[in-house]
Amino acid sequence: MEDGERVRMTAADGTEKTAAAEDKAYIHWLYQAVGFSSRGFLRSLASLGTPREIYQMTVSGVLSGKLSARFQKKAERMLEFSRGYDVLGAYGRMRERGIFLVAEGERQYPARLKRISDPPYVLYCAGQLPQEEKKAVALIGARDCTEYGRYMAGQFSAAFARAGVQVISGMARGIDGIGQTAALKEGGYSFGVLGCGVDICYPRENQELYEMLLASGGVCSEYPPGTGPRGILFPPRNRIISGLSDAVLVVEAREKSGTLITVDMALEQGREVYALPGRATDPLSGGCNRLIGQGAGLVSSPEEILGELLEEPQRNGGRRKKGAQGSLIFLEGVQGQLWEILDFNPLPVQELQRRYEERYGKAIAFPILYKELLELCTDGYAGQVGGGHFMRTMKT
Amino acid sequence: MLSTITSGAVYGVRSHLIQVEVDISQGLPCFQIVGLPGSEVREARERVKVALKNAGVKLPPMCINVNLSPADLPKNGTMFDLPVAVGIMIALGKLKQENVEGMLLLGELGLSGELKPVRGVLPIVREAAVQGVRRCILPAGNAWEGALIREMESIGVRNVKEAVALLAGETVSVVKPGESMDGNGAESVVCVTAGEVACAAASVEEKAKEEQLDFSQINGQQGLKRAAEVAAAGFHNLLIIGAPGSGKTMLARRIPSILPPLTREESLEVSTIYSICGRLQSVGSLRTTRPFLHPHHTITGRALAGGGRIPAPGVISLSHRGVLFLDELPEFKRETLDILRQPLEDKQVQIARSSGNYVYPADFMLVGAMNPCPCGFYPDRERCRCTPFEVRRYLNRVSGPILDRMDICVEAVPMAFADMTCSGEAEGSSQVRERVMAARKRQESRFAGSGLHFNADMGAGDVARYCALEEEELRYMERMFAALQLSARAYHRILKVARTIADLDNSDRIGTIHLAEAICYRQSDHKYWN
Q1: Total of domains in chain B
Q2: Which of A260, A313, B202, B504 could in theory staple to B288 by disulfide, Cβ–Cβ 3.0 to 4.6 A?
């Protein structure tokens, strides 16, 4: 987006500046001074003039006179904030940190966002913005995902990356982060919409992903840099996730889940919603199954989405790729039997022992059970959680 | 005139014989005790004076000097009352010095002249026996304690009058320990000899308590029981992770019931510690069952390790040769738990004070119990909604080095209804104990002469020596080492536990099946969350 900016600004001298960059500096000032929560206030300010004019009014003290009574306190706060504030310098310092700003109405403002009902006035970004001509899918889901969700998020995301589809998500724990990581690792593009300033990596365990996004993807936020993660900031960012995408895929969600907020936004915005089905008993598939019941597209392979999205028949469109589904694994003897009774949810050893007896009609002693389970673990078919829980894993 | 009486004092678990020298000579009337007496010892003057008066002996107005030798050891406790009183009687010429030759005297005096039981009798009598003393006069309440040492003839007396009469060679009637307890006043002296205190016969109370706790009361939890059996067989530390109400505590309480009974040597060690604390009284004989201690999580470091101006044994020493159960491990203060690190390594605890270094044995089996996450239900996703961060923070409350010393990690799972209702078919402790004993026997013969007791005691060198793997198993472990990214420490731990599992299986060779089970008992370190 450097071409759109046309400037090189340094905070120290501030000599080389153009009108466009200066305008942005005032926009940056405005967003910090107003605070991100005051939409109505922003609207009434906009009627008074450009950000630069508002700045002049603020520092000269005439602003409060032009605002209605209910905004007086806010005008005071703006004046307070503007005292000693170096508009161009602050903007320059932000630019130096690789963060740029895209305001509504600018050429590089994402076209998809323009069409939603409540587009953010401004986007703070780092890295690269998604490309308009390429398709984008929002891959979202639960933070405390299961092994199944983990595997599916990775598979779908990698397939999207291979097909050149951009993966948009929230860089959260669980499905979000797993999907984005998989896309980037596959050499694709991914874009993270954050609920805090773009200079803050939240959650911290996604540091590696955050750096990868800065290097070969992008991140954005409607909140100024330095804004810490707060619970109330996250739901509004979901409209940007769905807004930036052509379709939304829900991998795993509980029946009551923040993920479903994104789905509601997507439906309002007219985006296609897909959900990955799960078993009726899995709490983490409850949300997905309900979405399907309500008419969301049921997908079992990435090709089904790609086919619709790219409007070209995929080579094995609608049919699963070999290996994508676990039932193609052939194991012999006790190991095979054990694999059958293992689940994606971790089960305690004695539960496995009980299931084995129930299903195959013969008892299995602990030493043998442990030995065979361990074999499955080392071969990558199963995993040990905690002390004595075992679960099925997706062999990739 | 001068007299010398043999008595003793306890320092840590070691004891020293103390010579109580009494001299009475002409001069200004006085009564003083020298030889670093503590305040209880200094107060012996008043007790002895009055007790003798009430026993009909009047102290003449002379200069009485008492020296406790060796004079450079600090003396504490009330056991010197009787030796001082008897020493005065000799110095006054009412008894002869040869009457007390080769005899150990201990006891606290009441003002009426009665003798009260004192602490630490067992270790002192033991030390005396080693040094060739063959007779001891003790308060009647301690007499059986002295009799626990086979070489010692233990005589219990009720008051100072009886003691003097006995020493003067007058005939006194003798009662057996069992009868003496019923308070029948006709007989006066309790004479207890070795063998009369049947070591094997634990007091009725203790036995009854032991019988109440049995493995057969635990329904289901097969995996947990199996792990407990392995832990008991090799005296391995055990960590139980599980949801609230899944039976962690219930199982831990029953672990002593499957541990092999104390050997006589071990029993003496344990009883010594309890004697020092004055807690052997309530038992009434040698401790034959392994101690089980479960301190509350608010316990202080001093109570745990032992402390005080004159350090008393802490909970870890009281659980010597037994089980120390720490329920709700993450609730313990970190500093408190960290105190366990050195005792877990050295099997003893050293407490340094200005008056000297005190060493208490602390060779215990550590059993820890904790929830898997703050809500307690992980990994059940139906009920647990803890985030990975919350779980990690919870687990991090337990210091890594402590978790590192847990050989076996096992999970207790919430019980199924079917398990709760089925009755009668669960295995009893005695059956499990039989298998444990067989495994114990194998360890005994393997470690004969090496100073090791259990597989858990093996150091790195011992592991190489006693847990050598055959070619096939070596290849198996090589594969596992790479696949599971084991650390060297984890590898050694696995070998030790596998050795125990093989012992339970009555096998000399450690097979892959034993190794596999041991690997599954390892802690998946910080990978509690996937």
Answers
A1: 3
A2: B202
Distances (CA, A) of A127 to A20, A212, A214: 20, 10, 5
Interface test with A, best of B241, B367, B411, B479 (most A CBs within 10 A): B411
Whole-complex ipTM? 0.73
Note whether A387 contacts B411, CB cutoff 8 Å: yes
Q: Does A252 fall in a domain?
A: yes
- The pLDDT profile of chain A, 396 residues, written as one tens digit per residue, is 343 343 333 333 333 345 678 889 999 998 888 876 567 788 888 888 888 888 988 888 888 888 888 888 888 888 888 888 899 999 999 999 999 999 888 888 999 999 898 888 899 999 999 999 999 999 999 988 888 898 899 999 999 999 999 999 999 999 999 999 999 999 999 999 999 999 999 998 899 999 999 999 999 999 999 999 988 889 899 999 999 999 999 999 999 888 998 999 999 999 999 999 999 988 899 999 999 999 999 999 999 999 988 876 555 444 444 444 444 467 788 888 898 899 888 888 888 888 898 899 888 888 899 899 988 888 888 888 776 788 888 765
Range of the domain at B157: 2-192
Which of B381, B473, B481, B505 to mutate to probe the A interface, most A CBs <10 Å?
B381
Q: Which residues of chain B are within 8 Å of residue A394 when distances are taken between CB atoms? A: none
Residues B143 and B32 in one domain: yes
Rounded CA separation B217/A77 (Å): 70
Total domains present in chain A: 3
Phi-psi group of A257: left, alpha or beta (phi > 0 → left; psi -120 to 50 → alpha; rest → beta): beta
- Note whether residue B453 is domain-resident: no
Q: Quick one: tokens of B121?
A: 């009798």
Using alpha carbons, select from A51, A97, A102 the residue that is nearest to residue A220: A102
Residue B481 resides in a domain = yes
Half-sphere exposure of A393 (CA within 13 A, CB side): 17
Q: Which residue of A has its CA nearest to B514?
A: A367
**pTM over cut 0.80:** no
The residue among B137, B161, B192 that closes a domain is: B192
**Which chain A residue has the Cα nearest residue B387?**
A144
How far A189 CA sits from the closest chain B CA (Å)?
26
Q: Within a domain: residue A109?
A: no
Q: Which residues of A touch B416 (CB under 8 A)?
A: 351, 354
Judge if B132 and B226 occupy the same domain. Answer: no
Report the residue from A348, A353, A368 with minimal CB separation from B411.
A348
Residue B214 lies in a domain: yes
User: In chain A, which residues have their Cβ closer than 8 Å to the Cβ of B528?
Assistant: 385-386
